[in-house]
């Protein structure tokens, strides 16, 4: 089933997204009409006039698909390979599908039922485990394990394999993806895909764990995690990832895979030590934000007020994890001395439960920080010098916390990678 979101995104049906009223069934819009769906949304969400107008326009555009005129071509053959090839050629003349979708069309021909019975079932399982992945990611992993390269355009030899061999490759892929998620959960504290800057960085992990059949020594575990974190914070797979992925897949296929993976990173990053300047910047989409959370989890950080261990999987809305401005936005804006870049700096961010965050939303640090146990502040690398908690000392506070975060990051990564540096 296809579902449609308010931002005009299409996606495959998953239980978690289907429960969100802002995702609506494409079939429902086309069969029942945009107005009826909009009325349901208004009743459920108490829409304001402006939102009702915008949502109505978008749903109306979707419903007007019924008015399109489509050319029909009848192919007089029952040869599924010819039908698949026709689909790919016709598609190349119209709106281009991604190469991943075309590869999945080929897979559907060579292994009927693979996408529905295997891929979609796996995606739902991962969704329930708070890892929201996409079919194209699974397809990339499948291709990488089956061909030892990542490009969808070079799959001729893959399709020459029989269905039983394709099924075997999928079993290896599924097993390795399962292990990768457990590896990140248990060794890095990454409990949700929300903390993954790039899912492409998972692909070498999947292939590595498939090659070793999931068996890792302590040194390999630390080395693999070290490589993954270095790859993500240095943006190894941003942009077009295929060249970098193929480099890493060749490294994994060799006799010294971890050493060669590290060498790939060192060719791009002359010095792996982190500096305070690298941490500077707005926290939104900052490549170091997930690593900072991982380190705080390793520090056994607790919520400042409830004492609950920081976790993105805590139960109940009051215990959901939120990003907290240590010097609250409202306080800094009111002072009229700091711009948005300074206010949202990564060094001004801590992790708290929703309840705790809301309770100190507009409080001055000098008023609320003294109430918190020092050990809980230290676990999130908060400077303990109370003179830095004054609004006038905000910039000095940021400089000091950046220094503490830098030391923590270098210490954490250095301990993981000491056998591989």
Strand pairing plus helix content: what structural class? mainly alpha
- State the total count of DSSP E strands: 5
Helix content: 55-70%
Task: Summarize model confidence as the mean pLDDT.
Answer: 86
If helices are DSSP runs of H or I spanning 4 or more residues, what is the number of helices?
22
Total domain count: 3
**Topology as H/E string?**
EEHEHHHHHHHHHHHHHHHEHHEHHHH
Task: Characterize the largest beta sheet: strand count, sense, and whether it forms a barrel.
Answer: 3 strands, antiparallel
Gyration radius (Cα, Å) is 25 Å
Task: Please write out the topology.
Elements: E1 2-5, E2 10-12, H1 15-18, E3 23-25, H2 26-32, H3 34-45, H4 49-63, H5 80-93, H6 99-110, H7 114-128, H8 135-147, H9 156-159, H10 163-188, H11 202-211, H12 218-233, H13 242-253, H14 257-268, H15 276-279, H16 289-298, E4 321-325, H17 329-335, H18 340-343, E5 349-353, H19 354-359, H20 365-368, H21 374-379, H22 394-417
Antiparallel strand pairs: 1-2, 1-3, 4-5
Helix pairs in contact: 2-3, 3-4, 5-6, 7-10, 8-10, 8-11, 10-11, 11-13, 12-14, 13-14
Entry summary:
With 421 residues, the chain is mainly alpha-helical. It is 56% helix and 5% strand.
Could you please describe the fold and organization of this structure?
With 421 residues, this protein is mainly α. It folds into three domains: 2-67, no CATH class; 80-268, no CATH class; 277-417, no CATH class. It has 22 helices and five strands. It has helices at residues 15-18, 26-32, 34-45, 49-63, 80-93, 99-110, 114-128, 135-147, 156-159, 163-188, 202-211, 218-233, 242-253, 257-268, 276-279, 289-298, 329-335, 340-343, 354-359, 365-368, 374-379, 394-417; strands spanning 2-5, 10-12, 23-25, 321-325, 349-353. Strands 2-1-3 form a three-stranded antiparallel β-sheet. Strands 4-5 form a two-stranded antiparallel sheet. Strand 1 (2-5) and strand 2 (10-12) form a beta hairpin. Helix 5 runs antiparallel to helix 6 and helix 13 runs antiparallel to helix 14. The protein is globular. The two termini are 48 Å apart. The model has no long low-confidence stretch (mean pLDDT 86).
């Amino acid at each position: 089933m296809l579902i449609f979101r308010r931002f005009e995104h299409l996606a495959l049906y998953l239980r978690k997204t289907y429960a969100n009223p802002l995702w609506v069934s494409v079939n429902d819009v086309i069969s029942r009409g945009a107005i009826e769906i909009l009325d349901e949304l208004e009743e459920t969400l108490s829409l304001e006039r402006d939102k009702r107008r915008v949502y109505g326009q978008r749903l109306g555009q979707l419903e007007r698909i019924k008015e399109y005129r489509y050319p029909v071509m009848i192919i007089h053959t029952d040869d599924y390979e010819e039908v698949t090839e026709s689909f790919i050629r016709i598609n190349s003349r119209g709106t281009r599908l991604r190469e991943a979708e075309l590869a999945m069309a080929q897979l559907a021909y060579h292994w009927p039922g693979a996408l529905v019975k295997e891929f979609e079932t796996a995606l739902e399982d991962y969704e329930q485990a708070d890892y929201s992945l996409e079919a194209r990611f699974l397809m990339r992993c499948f291709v990488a394990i089956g061909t030892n390269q990542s490009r969808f355009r070079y799959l001729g030899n893959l399709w020459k394999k029989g269905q039983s061999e394709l099924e075997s490759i999928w079993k290896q892929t599924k097993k390795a993806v399962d292990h990768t998620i457990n590896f990140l959960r248990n060794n890095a504290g990454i409990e949700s895909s929300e903390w993954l800057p790039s899912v492409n960085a998972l692909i070498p992990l999947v292939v590595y764990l498939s090659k070793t059949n999931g068996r890792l020594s302590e040194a390999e575990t630390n080395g693999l995690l070290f490589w993954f974190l270095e790859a993500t914070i240095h943006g190894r797979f941003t942009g077009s990832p295929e060249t970098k992925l193929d480099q890493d897949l060749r490294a994994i296929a060799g006799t010294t895979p971890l050493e060669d993976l590290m060498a790939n990173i060192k060719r791009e990053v002359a010095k792996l030590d982190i500096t305070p300047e690298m941490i500077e910047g707005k926290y939104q989409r900052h490549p170091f934000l997930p690593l900072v959370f991982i380190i705080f989890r390793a520090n056994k950080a607790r919520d400042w007020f409830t004492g609950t261990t920081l976790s993105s999987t805590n139960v109940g809305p009051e215990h959901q994890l939120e990003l907290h401005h240590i010097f609250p936005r409202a306080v800094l804006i009111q002072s009229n001395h700091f711009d948005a870049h300074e206010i949202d700096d990564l060094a001004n961010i801590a992790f708290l439960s929703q309840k705790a965050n809301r309770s100190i939303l507009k409080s001055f640090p000098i008023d609320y920080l003294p109430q918190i146990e020092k050990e809980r502040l230290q676990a999130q690398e908060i400077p303990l010098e109370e003179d830095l908690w004054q609004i006038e000392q905000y910039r000095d506070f940021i400089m000091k916390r950046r220094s503490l975060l830098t030391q923590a990051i270098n210490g954490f990564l250095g301990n993981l990678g000491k056998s591989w540096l």
